[in-house]
Amino acid sequence: MASSKSVVLFALFLVSGYPVFAQDQWTMSEVDELKLLLRAFFEEDVDRAPGCLRLAFHDCVGYCDGCLNFGNPANGGLEDIYVEINDFYKNVLPLNGKTMSRADFFNLAGIVAVDTTVDYNNISCDEGLDPDCITMPKPPLRFLMGREDCVSSPDTEDNHEFPQGFMNHAEVMATMKRIFDLNTRQTVAILGAHTLGEMTRAGSGFDGSWKAQSDNKFKFDNRYYKFLLDDSITWTHRDANEGRSPDQRWQWTGRTNGEEIANMLDADIDLVKLLDIEDEGGHSTCSFEDCPDAPTKSIVQEYANDEAVWVKDFADAFERMTSTVPDPGVLAPPAA
């Protein structure tokens, strides 16, 4: 239900089920002011950042339209961060008499989440708190405006196809192409966002952090790719539901000398190995050592060896994914 403020600020018409807003024109300095407020929101609790980045991606399944269906299991685990960021949206906007669509706002929050976690990582490097720290350049993420919220924003009952964690290599590439029009290189780059956050049974049904140690899940770096190539890591395929449910959900845990280093989905391991997935639970008939190398392993090696190449490609993939709208030509940066 639109608020009285949004009714006053927007002229609303319906075109094929989507509203067309006479959107307020923002300047870059006004967007920077909103970015500072979002930055404070994330610095207050850095655990919000990975969730907001995931929210920005999930909003763009179907279209980037400010609407999510929490009845879809693929959106599991997003409700808490959605409530927080939506409260922020309602309390902070209008800013300087201007508002923006939720879809644009979710995109901006994702951009600021990345910026905040890059800085979180680099401060750790500067202070010598992490001996394996990698100082990261910031991805050159552009904020484009013009996304339109669906009629029922922020909720929808629409069910869309989501990428699944237990897909094989070909399925991952085909699905990301079909949903977001990402090419192979962009798909490998965007999956690097798994360097942030963690898997939860309440969310994806899987468990553990992609980077298992301490606060690494809040650091935007390229260790995701390094772990996929690290010969010192022994990867074990395990059922996350073992002893809990007959519905199997297979994932990978990597250990070095018995210490848990990382957790990966089949869709992650697919980037370096051609898994032979035999069922809907994601069980592979070949081990990490025995599965043949994937054709995308060379891209993973590029990103592991050169963080600057990765962040550039990540920015390209992020913009492509978050430009999933009926007419991408309407998207434009704020005024100078």
Automatic annotation (TrEMBL):
PROSITE patterns: PEROXIDASE_2, PEROXIDASE_4. Keywords: Heme, Iron, Metal-binding, Oxidoreductase, Peroxidase, Signal. Residues 34-321 form the Plant heme peroxidase family profile domain. InterPro entries: Ccp1-like, Haem_peroxidase, Haem_peroxidase_sf, Peroxidases_AS. It comes from the Eukaryota. GO terms for molecular function: heme binding; metal ion binding; peroxidase activity. Residues 1-22 form the signal peptide. The keyword Nuclease does not apply. One of its GO terms (biological process) is response to reactive oxygen species. Belongs to the peroxidase family. PANTHER family: CATALASE-PEROXIDASE, THYLAKOID LUMENAL 29 KDA PROTEIN, CHLOROPLASTIC-RELATED. This is Plant heme peroxidase family profile domain-containing protein. It comes from Tigriopus californicus (Marine copepod).
